[in-house]
Amino acid sequence: MESRSGSAAQGRPVGRGPKVCAAVLAATLAELADVGYARLTVEAVAQRAGVHKTTVYRRWKDREALVVDALTDHVAADMPIPDTGDVATDLRALARLLVTHLTVTHLGVVATMFSDAARLPEIADVRRRFFADRFRRATPLVTRAVERGQLPQGTDPALLLKSLIAPVYLRLLVTSEPLDDAVADHAAEITLAAARAGVFRSTKVSDPD
Amino acid sequence: MESRSGSAAQGRPVGRGPKVCAAVLAATLAELADVGYARLTVEAVAQRAGVHKTTVYRRWKDREALVVDALTDHVAADMPIPDTGDVATDLRALARLLVTHLTVTHLGVVATMFSDAARLPEIADVRRRFFADRFRRATPLVTRAVERGQLPQGTDPALLLKSLIAPVYLRLLVTSEPLDDAVADHAAEITLAAARAGVFRSTKVSDPD
């Protein structure tokens, strides 16, 4: 639940506490799925959550902040970071979680976020912050693998994680092929081979090889 | 010019020949960039090309066929397949061509194709055919590298090419990061490392290693 406090709560006691917060975030996701980002309003979210609009604005400065918190919170709840001790297993599990997340859990939300992308300038920033948060959360998977000696020193977690998710999003958004565990496993294989070859080493890090 | 004959011309003499065909395809791209796929009509394309609607319908059975031909023709003209004798150089060059294509040449067309994706069921099939054609055209790059012994026997061209373009589209459509030659080179590095590790070998092909 700690992620629910988000960027806007800042420890200030508002509304009727965590329950209201959770209701507003859930209402935001439901609105995103129903009407899309472009037509989402704080008014409709408040109505759906059964709170006053001012209650929402006390916690979130605008609808962008609300959407980012809702998506961030949702991802945090849905996607635990695998930690099995083996980087290959961890990467496969993370990619499979992403596939499940995209196909089963909230396809409506995802489709809306991307379909409106070209029309709305502000969506780019929302998505950028959303993915930055996701990459930050998954970073320990990579750093632990480096510490265990399973990946080269200096492997950049964000570069590696982008490689992991790229084939999954290519299918979802570009080639319109089905998403399944096979594509997740394939993405993990590509990424692991590239990581072991040193492709994701940050150029700022000296190379011990 | 041979690609201009496309799937619908079928050797049948129609209209006033290749010039009309080229004008209609160019008008289709311009309409795509201006109004998007969802609102593109054969009427508007015909008007823009300065021909009668029936001239268009004599050559293309519907607007989907027209759009696929226009995009296919455009890609064929814009993206020659590199053939330098070195697979690493070829992959970098192909990825850089894609970046240029997406950012400079026809960003409007590309954005439209993807922004409408979630709303229109038929767009998925248009895109699928479009990419199938692109992968088919680039296949010799991979088969030549296999023949030269630069890639493992049984490397699947489509799997490899999808890996090559995935990081580029991730930036364009997901993380909203800038597209440049660095991301192209990085995509080529990832793909080459994975290819050399045998990740793209078709499971149907016996493994000589």
Largest interface: A-B, 35 and 35 residues
The CATH superfamily of the largest domain in chain A is known as: Tetracycline Repressor, domain 2
Low-confidence stretches of chain A: 1-14, 204-209
| DSSP summary, beta strand count of chain A | 0
| Structural Rg of chain A | 19 Å
Instruction: Please write the CATH class name of the largest domain in chain A.
Output: Mainly Alpha
What's the architecture of the largest domain in chain A in CATH terms? Orthogonal Bundle
Pairing-aware structural class of the strands and helices of chain A?
Answer: mainly alpha
Determine the fraction of residues in helical runs of chain A and give it as a percent range.
55-70%
Total individual domains of chain A = 2
Order of helices and strands of chain A: HHHHHHHHHH
Shape field of chain A: elongated
The average pLDDT of chain A is 82
Question: What labels would you give this structure?
Answer:
Tetracycline Repressor, domain 2; disordered C terminus; 209 residues
Summarize the structure in short.
2 copies of one chain form a homodimer. Chain A is mainly α and 209 residues long.
Structural description of this entry:
The structure is a homodimer of 209-residue chains. The first copy, chain A, is mainly α and 209 residues long. Chain A has two domains: 72 residues, Tetracycline Repressor, domain 2, CATH 1.10.357.10; 117 residues, Tetracycline Repressor, domain 2, CATH 1.10.357.10. Chain A has ten helices and no strands. At the A-B interface, helix 7, helix 8, helix 9 and helix 10 of A face helix 7, helix 8, helix 9 and helix 10 of B.
